[in-house]
């Protein structure tokens, strides 16, 4: 066996992590808090935050069939020294809805197959606790919801304690909403839809004297499907925003630094932690899940991806965004495109991207048809990890985009929204080559000329280009189609805020030759004249001179040729662009 703990990237099986001596950040101290919170719990966290692993921990801890393995499975964990009375007291029935085929033609059958397979495993594991009447009756039951209903009735009569774990409860419904539209989604979550009925059976199993379903823990990425199938999670408690669980999933700054130090101390990490940590902070950190707890956490999957790459290949990954994260978030296209049309949320998404912050209360639950309500949509972005709590102002959360990974995803949503809504399209190949020449040959003018020319041709986009922030957000959405630069928008420099600093992305392009500082000015339609234009140019020139002296620029541009330039738009038309010395 290895004499060090390997990175468990992509592994959500707690038993496998322990048996194979993989690196584990101990979260078992939260088990007593879960027991205090209630018997039927619902937790929302963004994708790739360790939900599946935590359910695996709960399964190993509460499973009556794992009692003899407790010492081995939980050695060196907090809960091993502080076990609760409920340790190894339950029959565990677990479901993972991420394995259900979201193809609308295959969906119902795939769901049935998954549930039946889970029952098969359940019955095999607990065959010594189930009598012949159970097996003879269950053999004649076909439908999954009927199997569940019978099990819960049987457990009630026999005095058995059943703990049901449901992971990724809304995985296939999110895909259906995005790919197949509202009607297909509605058919399975309302009325006689099979998913709605399945949850009705769960709800029924929690009621009555000696109910067989004694505990339930459900995870997902949003409250939308739960609201639709249960008219709100009225069979238990939603602990998503509970301050006690803010650090239960994800990695704190301390936990992340401890991981880096561990691999540095055993010689597997070549770089110094203090050099890697700032990169990780900018790209993976700053998620805050409670108004009452100010602690912010890293996305655990992103951290493991980064550290594993550093160990395996000796350097940080050139692509700092894990491909699996990109793939997961692509499933959420219904945020801005529903039934192949831009929905009412697109403008809100664009506004948030342009301004950078938004204030709103957090709504605990809401159905899919109310996603167009502004407050619901902002809450959804928070649940998905696309926005995070920055601070509380006058009793209301103020949200911002948490890190550069999510900023990149925001830009991608906007671009795809423009394309899918037939608002704006560009030749990706041609444009990426122009941005490449901007990075390596100093030809920044061609990038902006190309965009300006396309805006002239494609008039539909003009409705979305109002004001300086809107223009800037649009430009950056397309410049970020390729990642030659880290674009720092409204970035604090020398006691002011620079419009855009085009910082060379040296991790991926170490030989890049140019870096830029841009001031963008906007003149409203009907207010343009030569005097106003000159005032804007003079103002931008003065600002560039001040911002260019900031220490951050000197530290960030390496040996690149640093250029300052001004761009002025009059409405949707670019009327001026020039470099200044």
Structure, described:
The protein is built from 24 helices and 15 strands. It is α/β, with parallel strands linked by helices and 581 residues long. The protein has four domains: 14-245; 253-286 and 298-322; 332-423, Arc Repressor Mutant, subunit A (Orthogonal Bundle); 441-581. It has a five-stranded parallel β-sheet with strand order 2-3-4-1-5. It has a five-stranded mixed β-sheet with strand order 11-12-13-14-15, sandwiched between helices. A three-stranded antiparallel β-sheet has the order 8-10-9. The longest helix is centred in the N-terminal third of the chain and has 19 residues, at 107-125. The N and C termini lie far apart (62 Å).
Descriptors for this entry?
581 residues, alpha/beta, Arc Repressor Mutant, subunit A, 4 domains, five-stranded parallel β-sheet, five-stranded mixed β-sheet, 24 helices, 15 strands, 45% helix, globular
Secondary-structure topology with pairs:
Blueprint: H1 14-19, H2 31-37, E1 40-44, H3 51-62, H4 70-73, H5 78-81, E2 91-96, H6 107-125, H7 132-138, H8 144-158, E3 162-167, H9 171-179, H10 182-189, H11 194-205, E4 213-220, H12 224-230, E5 237-238, H13 253-265, H14 273-284, H15 300-313, H16 323-330, E6 337-338, E7 341-342, H17 346-355, E8 357-359, H18 374-383, E9 388-393, E10 396-400, H19 404-420, H20 428-441, H21 444-457, H22 467-479, E11 485-493, E12 496-504, E13 514-523, H23 530-547, H24 551-556, E14 561-570, E15 573-580
Parallel strand pairs: 1-4, 1-5, 2-3, 3-4, 13-14
Antiparallel strand pairs: 6-7, 8-10, 9-10, 11-12, 12-13, 14-15
């Amino acid at each position: 066996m290895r004499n060090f703990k390997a990175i468990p990237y992509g592994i959500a099986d707690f038993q496998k992590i322990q048996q194979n001596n993989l690196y584990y950040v101990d979260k078992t101290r939260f088990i007593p808090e879960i027991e205090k919170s209630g018997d039927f719990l619902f937790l929302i966290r963004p994708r790739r935050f360790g939900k599946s692993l935590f359910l695996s921990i709960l399964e190993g801890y509460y499973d009556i069939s794992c009692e003899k393995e407790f010492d081995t499975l939980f050695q060196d964990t907090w809960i091993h020294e502080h076990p609760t009375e409920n340790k190894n007291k339950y029959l565990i029935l677990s479901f993972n809805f991420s394995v259900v085929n979201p193809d609308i033609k295959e969906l119902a059958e795939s769901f049935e197959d998954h549930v039946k397979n889970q029952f098969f495993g359940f019955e095999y594991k607990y065959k010594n606790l189930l009598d012949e009447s159970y097996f003879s009756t269950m053999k004649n039951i076909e439908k999954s919801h009927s199997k569940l209903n019978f099990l819960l009735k049987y457990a009630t009569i026999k005095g058995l304690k059943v703990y049901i774990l449901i992971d990724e409860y809304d995985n296939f419904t999110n895909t259906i909403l995005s790919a197949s539209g509202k009607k297909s989604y509605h058919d399975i979550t309302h009325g006689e839809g099979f998913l709605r009925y399945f949850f009705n059976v769960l709800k029924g199993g929690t009621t009555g004297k000696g109910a067989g379903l004694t505990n339930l823990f459900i995870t997902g990425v949003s409250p939308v499907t739960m609201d639709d199938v249960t008219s709100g999670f009225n069979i238990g408690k939603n602990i998503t925003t509970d301050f006690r669980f803010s650090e239960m999933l994800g990695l704190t700054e301390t936990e992340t630094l401890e991981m880096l130090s561990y691999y540095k101390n055993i010689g597997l990490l070549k770089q110094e932690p203090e050099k890697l940590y700032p990169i990780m902070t900018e790209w993976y950190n700053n998620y805050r899940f409670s108004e009452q707890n100010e602690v912010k956490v890293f996305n655990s999957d992103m951290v493991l991806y980064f550290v594993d790459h550093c160990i395996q290949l000796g350097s940080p990954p050139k692509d700092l965004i894990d491909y699996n994260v990109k793939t997961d978030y692509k499933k959420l296209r219904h945020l801005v495109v529903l039934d192949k049309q831009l929905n009412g949320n697109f403008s809100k998404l664009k506004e948030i991207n342009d301004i950078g912050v938004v204030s709103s209360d957090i709504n605990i639950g809401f159905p899919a048809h109310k996603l167009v309500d502004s407050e619901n949509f902002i809450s959804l972005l928070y649940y998905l990890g696309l926005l995070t709590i920055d601070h509380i102002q006058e009793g209301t959360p103020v949200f911002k985009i948490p890190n550069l990974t999510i900023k990149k995803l925001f830009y991608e949503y906007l671009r795809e929204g423009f394309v899918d809504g037939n608002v704006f399209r560009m030749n990706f190949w041609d444009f990426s080559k122009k941005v490449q020449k901007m990075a390596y040959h100093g030809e920044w003018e061609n990038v902006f000329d190309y965009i300006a020319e396309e805006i002239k041709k494609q008039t539909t986009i003009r409705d979305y280009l109002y004001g300086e922030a809107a223009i800037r957000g649009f430009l950056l959405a397309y410049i970020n189609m390729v990642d030659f630069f880290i674009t720092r928008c409204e970035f604090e420099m020398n006691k002011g805020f620079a419009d855009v600093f085009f910082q060379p992305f040296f991790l991926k392009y170490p030989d890049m030759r140019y870096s830029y500082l841009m001031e963008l000015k906007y003149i409203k339609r009907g207010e343009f004249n030569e005097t106003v234009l000159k005032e804007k140019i003079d103002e931008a020139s003065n600002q560039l001179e001040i911002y260019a002296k900031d220490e951050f620029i000197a530290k960030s541009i390496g040996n690149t040729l640093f250029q300052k330039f001004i761009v002025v738009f009059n409405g949707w038309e670019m009327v001026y662009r020039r470099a200044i010395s």
